[in-house]
Design goal:
Blueprint (H helix, E strand, L loop, with lengths): L6 E8 L3 H12 L5 E4 L8 H4 L31 H15 L5 E2 L2 E9 L4 E8 L4 E11 L21 E4 L13 E5 L5 H8 L5 E5 L6 E2 L8 H9 L3 H14 L2 H5 L6 H14 L3 H6 L12 E2 L3 H6 L3 E4 L3 E5 L2 E4 L4 E3 L2 E4 L14 E2 L6 H8 L15 E3 L12 H22 L3 E4 L1 H15 L3 H4 L21 H7 L8 E4 L5 E3 L4
Helix pairs in contact: 1-12, 12-15
Bound molecules: 3-acetylpyridine adenine dinucleotide.
Amino acid sequence: MTSAIDRAVDHLVIGAGFAGLCAAIKLDEAGERDFVVVERGSDVGGTWRDNTYPGAACDVPSQLYSYSFAPNPDWSMSFSPQPEIHAYIQRVARESGTLDRFVLDTSVDDARWDAGRQRWIVTTTDRAGHRTTYAARTVISGAGGLSEPKLPDIEGIESFGGELFHSARWNHDVDLTGKRVAVIGTGASSIQIVPAIQPQVAHLDVYQRTAPWVMPRHDRRYPAIEKAALRHVPGLQKLYREAIYWGRESYVLPFTRKPAILGPVQQLAKANIRKGVSDPTLRAAVTPDFRMGCKRILISNAYYPALDADNTDLVTDPIARVTPSGIVTRDGTERPVDVLVVATGFHTTELPITEHIVGRAGHTLAEQFDATGMSAYKGTTVPGFPNLFFVVGPNTGLGHSSMVFMIESQVAYITDALRTMREHDYATVEVTEATERAFHADVQQRMQPTVWHTGGCASWYLDKHGHNTTLWPRATFTFRALTRSFDVAAYAVTAPTHTTREVVPA
Ligand code: N01
């Protein structure tokens, strides 16, 4: 391959969300300063930049949903709203001194392994259409699983004549006041949107395909004195973080091995329904028919009361089609709609970035995943794709705790891999197929007794073959232990002379 190279760098990071920014900061700290972070948006923040819908907030407490190396004593609430989280990421990025290496408004079109050069040849295009070709020793993908909105495949939706947008692409130019609004979906995004817009709109139809479990939200505002204590009392913020971490970690056992333990918690969720909904028919309609935990457990005090409001209808009859002016359900009823919000989730089980990455054998990673199932060793490396590392890769998602914990674990593993490569003068590292397959088999075997498999629901955690390729089926501290240091024995390495040799376990 003889592509003209515009710029050679050691490392190219894709995406500037929590994952890509963490990679940039830790690369810099490790002395790996020759890198670029390519980000298609015009700012850092990833999903927290994109999801600006009314009511957007994190359902993991902020003391834990933040970098361990950048504690923030100024969170206003225990579950911070989106603008605060975005501002936090912006501040950490600014203060990190790495922003000079961020290339914003630029998409990665193609990343192709060039065996002759032992480099990734990465082509990018900026907003003005200007193309740049990089040669990079490694590529680190921080393009997460919640980056590509999934639009519902509903007959006639393209003919809708009113305003239509996805929850992750909220159109703030559309004033909802006095409008007839329909929201399709009742997942984590929808249950935040519905109570936020219900008081404003003339009428709200919420289209529910599957009722979610919704627990009360124990949120509170931090008083000034508590914030001052968090700032000044040594170790206090760390203590908060630890307490939240272990509280969350207590969900691992019921999720992964003993789903029946969640029975009493399910009763609390039912009490939340009784508290929020007065109408018995509506209560029955919002009561889930699967075991709690099978889909993400949601938290809200305001969702049920918003459904119970006079101007809201919960529609459970399946959608038949969308017309230019409304939605028709299977029973033939047409409900008029001015603004249609699709809160229908993301392409999670396909990792869209994989369509743009071409490995050693000349096929895309998406094609490989299609054949073998989406899988990566420790969620990070894939055979056939040397020097490619994922942050938030396959089977690293969580249903109960902070993704930032997983991100920091993976970034530590990657920076240790880079240190190992430098120390031993390895040009490439590539996980062996046998190691990766054994890891995958172990993950899938551990998946069998989990509530995600046995709970009686269909969810985006599972791929088209019914395999859970998104979540981590063990404790997060186990993941941390597995990624603490780079296990070079699991990898085939090449020296810069291009001779391949297997590193035999010591
Ligand atoms: O998406 P979802 P989301 N016709 O996929 C329904 C994170 N997140 O954007 O359940 C009708 O959960 C679908 O129905 P069903 C978090 O990880 C975090 O809400 O498949 N309905 C479901 O109700 C979360 O898990 C926060 O039967 C259709 C909904 O749309 C992830 O993002 C906040 C349909 C989609 O729910 C995604 O959440 C928000 C169709 N054709 C999001 N297609 C935090 O607080 C889909 N649905 C951290």
